[in-house]
Amino acid sequence: MKYTEEHEWLDEADGIVTVGITAHAAEQLGDIVFVELPEVGADVAKDDEIVVIESVKAASDILAPIDGEIVEVNEAIVEDPAKVNEDPEGAAWFFKIKASDTNQMADYMDEAAYKVFIG
Amino acid sequence: MSDLNRTALYDLHLEFGAKMVPFAGWEMPVQYAAGVMKEHLHTRAAAGLFDVSHMGQVILRGAGAAEALERLVPVDVVSLPEGRQRYAMFTTDEGGIIDDLMVANKGDHLLLVVNAARAEVDLAHLREHLPEVEIEHITGRALIALQGPKAEDALAALNPAAREMRFMDVAEMELAGATCWVSRSGYTGEDGYEISVPNTMGPRLARALLENSDVHPIGLGARDSLRLEAGLCLYGSDIDETTSPIEAGLRWAIQKVRRAGGDREGGFPGAERILRELDQRPARKRVGLLPEGRAPMRAHVPLFAAEDADAPVGEITSGAFGPSIERPMSMGYLPADLAAEGTTVWGEVRGKRLPATVAALPFHTPSYKR
């Protein structure tokens, strides 16, 4: 598992990376009321704004952590955004991306480093 | 955040796990561990306790105080009975709104409660225009709101006199050993009270109320979603110096005696525009809006009459997700001819035009004890 400074977790298997937000991020955001996910099939570049998350009070973006093609999105969290607060690191994953270059993940933090990062 | 003011309940907020944020120059709790959604729902189901000590409390003393105040507000203050409170607004010469406030007749004085962000402006305005009135800014008292269906039981446990009050009554009563000034009113659309207590006694009163398992501490985040569901204006967002009380849908607050033909017609700033708009409809109106999808439409989202229209015709002034109605909700201004309930307009959110329907306010029906 890898973690970005924007509090996303990345779980890679066979070139497909599942992405979500960490429990820390979900707690900081507060109650999530709206999620907008990218289109399946979309080609995205690292740092593109591809997900919108809205809490009761404010909107946030999630940036694409790597270049690639969106191969699946989690409709369950669109239907019930509260799931993101309930299980952010499990059932409430956001999207799966087919990585153009898995080496892009090398710069991200491992779990120990992320724990230090969030203090 | 060390240059911010702290209320008498600051330590208590930290003890209860509050997330503190700057608000109008004060360090205030935006939420506690429960979070905005749960705090909102709890208030409607039971009772919420809010620290609103950042708001300004001002006393006007002197025999002519009510008459004098009428020079600044389009409201009947003179015949406000002792022991009663009324909603009012300071108006500008152009008929806009300087601030909205509550005015209470406490017998030998009037008690005003004004918005935190406008307290300094309001005091200067009062001092400039009411030189003959004794004006005291009360800084030694905290203000606690207790709101929800269980508020009466919770306050009556401290003093049974709380049960005798009806909506918009004001009274003095002993609560947790302190002499408190209490109104039966609030900003949530629920039955409840606002309680002014000396700073030194504030924490003790708050703790006494919080000992009741029905009463939870509630932050400013939920205060905003509660008031928006109740269709209540937020100064600086839904009303400001450019909005007249009539555009803002507040004509109900202007009693007949201050309108054209009344005994004390006009005589407040902006009377020309306000009386004219009372007679002919204003060009624009504040409306409720329900986005048709799930995406909230927040303040400053431009509104269009048609999906592909070039120029916006209005704007959202407040928007959030309504936990009790389980959907996004907004308020904004539209031209009068687009303001009818059921009209579809289009808000531009992140570059996309999304439909919203003009809806009656409030979104959630109030339950005041009248």
Task: Produce a short descriptive summary.
The complex is a heterodimer of chains A (about 120) and B (about 375). With about 120 residues, chain A is an alpha+beta fold. Chain A has one domain: RNA polymerase II/Efflux pump adaptor protein, barrel-sandwich hybrid domain (OB fold (Dihydrolipoamide Acetyltransferase, E2P)).
Summarize this structure as a short list of keywords or feature phrases.
heterodimer, A: 119 residues, alpha+beta, OB fold (Dihydrolipoamide Acetyltransferase, E2P), three-stranded antiparallel sheet, 4 helices, 9 strands, 21% helix, B: 370 residues, Gyrase A, domain 2, Elongation Factor Tu (Ef-tu), domain 3, six-stranded mixed sheet, six-stranded antiparallel beta barrel, 18% helix, 33% strand
SSE arrangement:
The complex is a heterodimer of chains A (119) and B (370).
Chain A: E1 2-3, E2 8-13, E3 16-21, H1 23-29, E4 32-36, E5 43-44, E6 49-55, E7 59-63, E8 68-73, H2 75-79, H3 82-86, E9 95-99, H4 111-118
Antiparallel strand pairs in A: 1-2, 2-3, 3-9, 4-6, 5-8, 6-7, 8-9
Chain B: H1 10-15, E1 19-23, E2 26-31, H2 36-45, E3 47-51, E4 56-61, H3 65-69, E5 85-91, E6 97-105, E7 109-114, H4 119-129, E8 134-138, E9 141-147, H5 151-156, E10 170-175, E11 178-183, E12 192-198, H6 202-210, E13 215-217, H7 220-229, H8 271-279, E14 284-291, E15 302-304, E16 314-322, E17 327-335, E18 344-349, E19 352-359
Parallel strand pairs in B: 3-13
Antiparallel strand pairs in B: 1-2, 3-9, 4-7, 4-8, 5-6, 6-7, 9-12, 10-11, 11-12, 14-17, 14-19, 15-16, 15-18, 16-17, 18-19
Helix pairs in contact in B: 2-7
